[in-house]
Amino acid sequence: MTPLALRTLSFNPRRAAAAAIALTLAFTLAGCDEELVCPAGETDCRGRCVSLLADEANCGACGSACGPLEACGGGVCGCARGVATCDGACTDLARDPASCGACGAACLSTAPLCATAEGVSSCAASCEPGLSACAGACVDPASDRYHCGACGRACADGESCRDGACRPEIYVACYASGDVRPVNAALEDAGLPVPTSGSPQALAVSGLAIYAANGFPAGVAVLPFGPQLAPRVTVLPGDDVQDLLAHSGAVLVSNSGVETVVVLDASGDVLDEVALPGEQPNPHGLAVAGDTAYVALFGRSLGEGVAPTGQAVARLDLSGLPACLAGGAGPCAVAGDPIDLRAVAGSAPAGGEPFPSRALTIGTRVFVTLSSLSYADCGGGFFDWCKPAGSGRLAVIDTAANDAVSIVDLGPSCGNPGDLALDGDTLWISCGSFGFPDLAPGALVPVGGIGAGGTPSVGAPLATPAGFVPGNLAFCGASGYVTDQASGAVLRFDPAARRADAPPVTVCPTVYFAWAADVECAE
What we know:
Blueprint: H1 13-28, E1 43-45, E2 48-50, E3 70-73, E4 76-79, E5 84-86, E6 89-91, E7 113-117, E8 120-124, E9 132-134, E10 137-139, E11 159-162, E12 165-168, E13 170-174, E14 179-183, E15 194-195, E16 199-205, E17 209-216, E18 219-224, E19 232-235, E20 241-247, E21 250-255, E22 260-265, E23 270-275, E24 283-289, E25 292-297, E26 312-317, H2 321-325, E27 334-335, E28 339-340, E29 353-362, E30 365-374, E31 387-388, E32 393-398, E33 404-409, E34 417-423, E35 426-431, E36 443-448, E37 457-458, E38 462-463, E39 470-476, E40 479-484, E41 489-494, E42 499-500, E43 505-506, E44 516-521
Antiparallel strand pairs: 1-2, 3-4, 5-6, 7-8, 9-10, 11-12, 13-14, 13-44, 14-15, 16-17, 17-18, 18-19, 20-21, 21-22, 22-23, 24-25, 25-26, 26-27, 26-28, 29-30, 30-31, 30-32, 32-33, 34-35, 35-36, 36-37, 36-38, 39-40, 40-41, 41-42, 41-43
């Protein structure tokens, strides 16, 4: 299958301004030296923006590193979480045979190892099955943060050990600086930025790697956690990869630049490419239910006075995916008839059109956010149909009822819904109008009753700070995180208390501009 050779610029209002700036700078600044401008409160230490108040390798000053049992707080090294102080020295009572369970409780030669069982540390003659002896302690290298994957390989503060690899709690895609930034739950730096060889605007985390969808130039970066995979970048045609989804050993990619969905294996090899139905469908969000992939088709404009095309949800048959991954000759995915959302009653208010953006599967239902937009020129003729026409919608596709579609009105606080993420039985939706804050200021809208096929119920919105344009969402532990489409900041919020932290934390540095494009939790 040959992908389409030509494309029309995407006019997604949440991405349009940042994409336009990136495209312009890519040409006008070609050949210029890259200027690194660190966020407020951070310092350039050898080409890396760090907080001298919290960075373990640069605590208080560039190059001033903390010890192996220390963490940096307030620019001063101190004992890390869970580490005691014995005679003025940081001591790990769960692993130190000289102070096993208590300061000075030294293990004898008959039981030289410090082992912990059910939270109690004591001396042992040998380690239990599945544990390894490392520096006089019995540890599990698959999960021990001080001996992760091998004896002596310690994870940094803010990281945890998963499957023998140190991983931070959260990842943020930084479009302008072209990297993925690891942070902890407080959005503090938790490791070195990982370059993506492009401008990442969507992330997916699997068991083996982080996958980053590069919008410009188009491609998918494979950023492995361990030696099972090799780091690589799979270059794709076009210049606008919108979304990607890790599913059953494969990675599905919405390549908006050439109107296709690409199927990759875990290593990044292209297995298949499926042309999508309709005129300029502009694929965005992806979700899978059973053997069917649902692709939000945002559509494209045909000019002023002409209704846009492509507002639908494509359906791809994935029943051949297992055989395809095993090396079979058949297709990985086959396009079927799309769901025409413009034909669904109530999908948009009067004077507006429904623009499908993001998709999420919960049980047997697929939820798709619909921006309700009217015509306006928002980018010198490049971006139109971008002005909120009224309250946004949520399309609910019931896969157990022959893909019957119902519509939920998200209310006046959500004129331009984008990403969506589940917390318990509440679905949270980010709402923010880039360039039209007077019509629909930023908000996070909760929709309850989602679990067990319940009836969706829209709750009171959680307002975001002035000027903050909510982007992509993730729930990591007890906290929610949402990116700012207008800056390099990320906002943490408490979904239970319905309260957001203030101010947002700048994670992505300014490299001529800044954009925190996506946020994902470590598995």
